Amino acid sequence: MQAPLVLAASLLAILGGCSDGCANDVVSRATSPDGKVSAVIFERNCGATTGYSTQISLIGPDKEPSGPGNLFRADTGHGAARSGAWGGPWAELRWLSPNHLLVRYATGARIFEQSARVGGVDVTYEAAP
């Protein structure tokens, strides 16, 4: 009877320690004019085998980003794009209205995610040199 308990406890310990191994470091945050949502630029670091990335999520104004960006994800395309101070491609945010966000990002960035609308917020993208 003890073997199944030991096996179950070992499995729980292993699974409890699992994570995707990535960390999000916030670069900048811009809260919408009505204060209901924040756009957050962050660098997602998944270890030595991955390059720097720039990611953007729309989240609650008092929240921190978790997981990959839900709005925008890009890297420098092996140096084709200008880097920000954090290592990923440069980007900036500007709210045009409470439900319209402008995202400017470095020309040449290799884009993996670029959503036009998230959670009722429309997003316009502009590549900038």
Task: Describe, in short, the structure shown.
The chain has 129 residues and is mainly beta. It is built from 1 helix and 9 strands, in the order H-E-E-E-E-E-E-E-E-E.
* Biggest sheet, spatial arrangement of strands: 1-2-3-4-7
Helix/strand-derived category reads mainly beta
Distance between the termini: 67 Å
- Based on CA inertia axes, which overall geometry fits? globular
Oligomer: single chain
Helix content: 10-25%
Instruction: Characterize the main sheet.
Output: 5 strands, antiparallel
SSE ordering: HEEEEEEEEE
Q: How many helical stretches? A: 1
Compute the CA-based radius of gyration.
Answer: 18 Å
Mean pLDDT: 87
Content of β-strand = 35-45%
Runs in which pLDDT lies below 50 for 5 or more consecutive residues are 4-18
Please indicate the count of domains. 1
Total number of strands = 9
Secondary structure elements and pairings:
Elements: H1 2-16, E1 23-31, E2 38-45, E3 53-59, E4 72-75, E5 91-97, E6 100-106, E7 110-114, E8 117-118, E9 121-128
List keywords for this structure.
129 residues, mainly beta, five-stranded antiparallel sheet, four-stranded mixed sheet, 9 strands, 12% helix, Lipoprotein, signal
Characterize the structure shown.
This protein is mainly β. The chain has one domain. Helix content is 12%, strand content 44%. The protein is built from one helix and nine strands. The strands form two sheets. Strands 1-2-3-4-7 form a five-stranded antiparallel β-sheet, with no helix packed on it. It has a four-stranded mixed β-sheet with strand order 5-6-9-8, with no helix packed on it. The termini are far apart. Residues 4-18 have low confidence and may be disordered.
